[in-house]
Design a protein that fits this description.
Layout (H helix, E strand, L loop, with lengths): L3 E10 L7 E8 L4 E5 L6 H7 L8 E9 L2 E2 L5 H7 E4 L12 H11 L4 H15 L14 H14 L4 E5 L7 H18 L2 E6 L11 E6 L2 E5 L18 H7 L34 E10 L9 E9 L3 E5 L6 H9 L6 E6 L3 E4 L12 H12 L3 H14 L15 H14 L4 E5 L7 H16 L3 E5 L3 H7 L2 E6 L2 E3 L1
Parallel strand pairs: 3-8, 3-9, 6-7, 7-8, 13-17, 13-18, 15-16, 16-17
Antiparallel strand pairs: 1-2, 1-4, 4-5, 9-10, 11-12, 11-14, 18-19
Helix pairs in contact: 3-4, 3-5, 4-5
Length: about 475
Amino acid sequence: MEALHIENLSFKYMLGEDDVLANVNLRVEPGEKVLLLGASGSGKSTLLKLMDPLIAPKGRKSGRIMIGDREVGEISDREAAAMIAYVGQNPESQIITDTALGELAFAPENLSVDPAEIRRRIAWVTAYFGIESWMDRRTDELSGGQKQLLNLASAMMKKPQLLLLDEPTSYLDPLTARRFLDMVDEMNRDFRLSVIIAEHRPDKLAGRIHRAYIFNGRTLAEHGTDFTVEGPDLFYENLFRINEKRAAEGTGGASPRKAGSSGNTGRPGDGENPVNKNRSGDVGIDIREICFRFSKTDKDVLKDLSLKVRQGDVYGLLGGNGAGKTTLLRCIAGGLKPYRGRITGTENRGLLPQNPRSVFVHETVGKDFDKFFEYRGLSRDEAQKELEAIRSILPIEGLEDKNTYDLSGGETEICAIAKILMSGASVLLFDEPTKGLDVDEKRRLRDIFRRLGEDGRIVIFVTHDEEFTLMAANRVGVLSGGRILE
């Protein structure tokens, strides 16, 4: 008997005009790992949510979704909670309790699992994920990557029959992502766990899946499991060598050094780096030996960190989960204050946080944009002119009438980037800007960053996406041990 069978499924949101899914057919055998591929907004997240009755969106649906021999609508909430686990794109939206340990225990406690069994599961999951050291920490102190790891571990605590993963590694550094996927592989083998993963990039799962489907318009077509992996062959252990690699290729790179020293880097294969074309050489952000910790009893997250970023720089910062990348951005933006050291330079700074939905305060995207222009004191004509300029570089047409909660992960990120560009800030800070974006959208974002650099603005982005960093940034740093190395 198939673990999951979808037959001629079509779906339209309650207020939507067009079908999001049309005549979708899908099958998953027990113990299979199946990959869903598609561009941002293609319907991957919608399809995954329709498989879980607890989170299925409201709308007009036709066709059938069978789990085992039962229609999804026939499964009780309690049964669904025990047998299906879903991990979405945004880690913030799934955290419930105030401690990491409480988060792991929450689901099995509500399913009336024996306390001794819960303790055994916690011991097993924390050891497997390598998260024992921060079990007593508050969830609001965890980095975005740590929160996503916690969500993944919490899903495993239920020992589900069907695991639904919506871009589960988008917040994870490469080594942590690989470790998680290894764990999914082992769970799949040992317990015949059926797994469905939605992703933009199939290379992350090369050799790990049994079947793949790709969105063709609003329907699915079965795809082979042999994928052509494009782009540079990058591994996390090579991050420290990115600038050195550029120098060896003769594109103006620099050898690894302490951040803040002079020197430019280029981009492989691009010849003259367009980001650097109009650099003034003036320091726009000067960070001098800052130290930061969340409380007096905590260890320093940032320790004697120094960095100089010049006008026109597009600076890419990488580092492992919990290294302090988000903390550094918040310090630069002014939301956190170091207890030692100082940050000087251009004051007009804008931050796009890790959770892009948090920048929206109104019901629809268009209304949010309008109110933002009003707040800036722009006339209707001035606002329209700025909006048209944004539309020329970002695909936001067709999204402005949507409720912000009806956007896909990639669409949310695109609209949030649009809003931060509307701020007119001279220093633009981006926290994980490529999560949820497909390949074409990443290339478009690269071009936007280049254009901002050419205009003399400063762009600083933190990410785990090594490939994007290599093609978008003219300088690259790695945050490790509370300091930046280049």
